[in-house]
Amino acid sequence: MKGIVFTEFLEMVEAQFSPALADRIVCSASLPSGGAYTAVGTYDHGEMWSLVIELGKATGTPVPRLMHAFGEHLFQRFTVVYPKLFESVSSAFDFLQGLETVIHSEVRKLYPDAELPSFDVAERNAQRMVMVYRSSRHFADLAEGLLRGCARHFDEPIEIGREDLPAERGSAARFTLTRNG
Amino acid sequence: MDERTRQEPSGVAAARAAAGGPQAPAADMEILLRRVERERLARKQAEQLLEQKSRELYDANQRLQAHTARLELTVQERTRALEEALVQMEDALRAKGEFLAVVSHEIRTPLNGVLGMCQLMMMTTLSEEQRGYAQTIQNSGEMLLALINDILDYSKMESGKLSLDQRPVSVREVVRDVTQMLDPQARTKNLSLKSDISDDVIPWFKGDAMRLKQVLINLVGNAVKFTQRGGVKIVVRMQQQDGPWLQCQVRDTGVGIPPDRIGKLFQAFSQVDSSVTRRYAGTGLGLVICKRLVEGMGGTIGVESERAQGSTFTFRIPVAPAPAPVDVAPAASEAAAPGRALRVLVAEDNQVNQALALGMLKKLGVPADLARDGEEACNMVRHGAYDVVLMDMQMPRMDGVTATQAIRGMRGIRQPHIVAVTANAMDVDRQACLNAGMNDFLAKPFKAGELQQKLEAAPIAAA
């Protein structure tokens, strides 16, 4: 998993809770990396699970909800860190349409060995878009949060439905995005 | 972080002491947070920098790959262009060779006329002055013919069309012919021309006598040309090396060859002295032809030379012993009846050649009739009893080979001695002539003496 997910997560915890809490969950998660992350590094995705679980314990919030919240926050951070990726895109559907071809291909230019989830567009019309998420990891909750973040960034009233799919390895989910009004 | 704090330089501790001892915990925390913030900012800048550089690297790499692909494409294009150029060049070379062969062949026909007529003219009553002029025409014509033959041979070799006979050859006969032929030239320069053939040289081997003779004529001719004093010697020996080899040497006491020129000696169109003021004429093809011929026979050729001391050209060819050839005489011919004049038929379509052959025969005192093509020749042989037919190979309506086959197929006639008259008396033609039932060959341009020899060799049928 790319380091930016970790650095943004810890910053979110520091900002929304406290640096002390961030320190506590890093210490109690007993991470192989010691919790020293850089955005350009790559780390074991298990560390992300450990951190979120520890945060859940510390705050009494269910892990899926934390993942949703973090996903939404992460998307907003992407718009700040990589403004160029959003320059010529005017709607959430357009952005999501180009996720594989534009965004992921840009990521691969910088990190050729990045393990990225796939977001295939199964259906799309003006009001509705169906995307199938597939990943070797179990981050469908994070993905859902990112989708929400996307809708919020473009300030569009989009309802997101999710149906988990059986997957041989990792996880898969079908997201149905419906534009209201 | 802890590490760094522990190893804090003493200067910092001193500064802290000067500021009035340890700070209050809250203030300390604030300093630490600011410091962490600075570190975090530095990390983010470093990350950004790294991503920017990575991206630049990626772009550069892409450009490089595109460039490589373009280069490969260029290389492919160039290679294809070169291959095309090569094919074109080979075509051009082949065309050149063929042109050379055709032109040389075409030049020989009128030249034969010139030489033949000149010979006839020299048999007439001429003043000393006229005879001198005629002799010069003759000599110049023969030189020209030799050059053309060289070029023709060379172009044949270049286009891989050279084929060699595999018939019984006697090296003693070949050497005798060569010395006989070149002795007059040696004599006029007061040079000796000798041959030394060891007893163990096998009498007959399979090979191409004409081509072997050509090599020797070239080497001995050169030796005579480049020698002013002393002489030329042909030395023939047998050698054993995975079978019998024939080694021929031509030794002279001539001007010799400078060491730096020896390498170029066997290259086309190169003479030792290629300057405009050179003393010796020639195309420079002679030795190249020799080399090709010897190599064609499976052998090697080389030279050793010392300036002003002389040169020795040596060639070796592998030889397989052959039985002595059996003379093939026409079945119908009977014992010679001396005293009776020959009856000769000349089958020839070219007017100049007709005049030439008839003129020579007239000078030799031999009565002759003329047939203008193969068909006419057949008819005349059927009805008139000829001893000898001089049969041109290329004639309209019916060629020489076909006419010969027709004549040999005739029953109840006197079978004549048929001599093939051909412009290229070599390889394939010879075999075709023999197969058709011809008895002998006469290469154009022939001299009166050669014609006389051929006629004398013909058996005269009883009347």
Task: Describe the structure using short key phrases.
heterodimer, A: about 180 residues, alpha+beta, four-stranded antiparallel beta sheet, 7 helices, B: about 475 residues, five-stranded mixed beta sheet, 13 helices, about 55% helix, disordered N terminus
Overview of the molecule:
The complex is a heterodimer of chains A (181) and B (463). Chain A is built from 7 helices and 4 strands. Chain A is globular. In chain A, strands 1-2-4-3 form a 4-stranded antiparallel beta sheet. Chain A has helices at 3-16, 19-28, 45-59, 63-81, 92-97, 99-110, 140-153, and strands at residues 118-124, 128-135, 158-165, 171-179. Chain A has 181 residues and is α+β, with helices and mostly antiparallel strands. With 463 residues, chain B is α/β, with parallel strands linked by helices. In chain B, 53% of the residues lie in helices and 15% in strands. In chain B, strands 2-4-5-7-6 form a 5-stranded mixed beta sheet. In chain B, helix 9 links the parallel strand 8 (344-347) and strand 9. In chain B, helix 3 (25-122) packs across helix 9 and helix 6 (209-225) packs antiparallel against helix 8. The A-B interface holds A 19, 38-40, 109-111 and B 33, 43-44, 46-47, 50-51, 54-55, 58.
